[in-house]
Amino acid sequence: MRSSVALFALVALLGFAAAGASAMPAHKFHHRPVHHNGDADTAAYPLIEITLYMESLCPDCQALIAGDLWNVWNSSISSIMNLTLVPYGNAKESQSGSTWEFTCQHGMYECVGNVLETCAINLLQNSTVWFPFIHCLEGTSAPNAAGPACAAKLGINFDPIDACMTSAQGNAMEHEMALKTAALVPAHTYVPWVTLNGAHCVPCENGHLKQAICGAYTGPKPADC
Ligand SMILES: *[C@@H]1O[C@H](CO)[C@@H](O)[C@H](O)[C@H]1NC(C)=O
Ligand SMILES: *[C@@H]1O[C@H](CO)[C@@H](O)[C@H](O)[C@H]1NC(C)=O
Ligand SMILES: *[C@@H]1O[C@H](CO)[C@@H](O)[C@H](O)[C@H]1NC(C)=O
């Protein structure tokens, strides 16, 4: 069912993604969620780093984003995770002068969808803003074309994202996603490919994302765990 990776290994990524919770310090610790039942100290626990390596037209990626990933995101579990998306997947790239040319598993529209999502992640910065946008895109049959409608629905200004998609800046951003994917150890062999705190997490891909995040968190569990 999964899209197998072709016999090339040049992928990569980058990650931004502020965590989903608000009022969070800009480093990798956060204060206890309000759901804890203990004292009100400000002990900090490391957020669970969840990174999804995906490509825009892959059906299993769409199912994960619409299903388990959205379900943990749209719950108190979002307060203990730091989500990063790497829209590149099984694409290939080659350098042409000062720009990169991408070839995507599901064709050119997938490449357009990937760079759209990459621009959105980089420009919007805050995952509380960009993840619902990408969730909206991936909930359609043509993510590459859904930008204006999803942006309007979520109150996001699409103009800078639109401009980014065909700019040298957007091209460089997508190349960063290629590098991030290529940096995976072990290399990915399919998408969606999920890492938890940097390690490949097969249960995260197979229906146990919530259990994996909750189980890895060292602090008091949020209510939805
Ligand atoms: C992210 O956006 C949300 C919703 O607008 C906001 O509440 C939150 O403070 C923002 N987080 C950061 C780190 O800017
Ligand atoms: C989330 O992860 C990104 C990428 O690793 C990192 O730059 C950022 O500081 C993290 N944010 C938090 C709140 O931990
Ligand atoms: C998010 O979860 C709440 C319940 O906690 C639910 O009412 C709402 O419909 C969910 N939103 C989406 C977009 O799934």
Describe the protein:
The chain is an alpha+beta fold and 225 residues long. The chain has one domain: Glutaredoxin. It contains 8 helices and 10 strands. Helix 1 links the parallel strand 4 and strand 5 (81-87). Helix 2 packs across helix 6. The longest helix has 17 residues, at 108-124. Residues 3-42 have low confidence and may be disordered. Bound molecules: 2-acetamido-2-deoxy-beta-D-glucopyranose (NAG) (3 copies). One 2-acetamido-2-deoxy-beta-D-glucopyranose is lined by residues 18, 22, 24, 126, 128-129.
Topology, pairings included?
Layout: E1 3-4, E2 29-31, E3 44-46, E4 48-54, H1 59-73, E5 81-87, E6 92-96, E7 99-103, H2 108-124, H3 127-138, H4 147-154, H5 159-165, H6 168-182, E8 190-191, E9 193-196, E10 199-200, H7 202-205, H8 209-216
Parallel strand pairs: 4-5
Antiparallel strand pairs: 1-8, 2-3, 4-9, 6-7, 9-10
The structure holds 2-acetamido-2-deoxy-beta-D-glucopyranose (3 copies).
One 2-acetamido-2-deoxy-beta-D-glucopyranose is lined by residues 15, 17-19, 24, 28, 47, 82, 84.
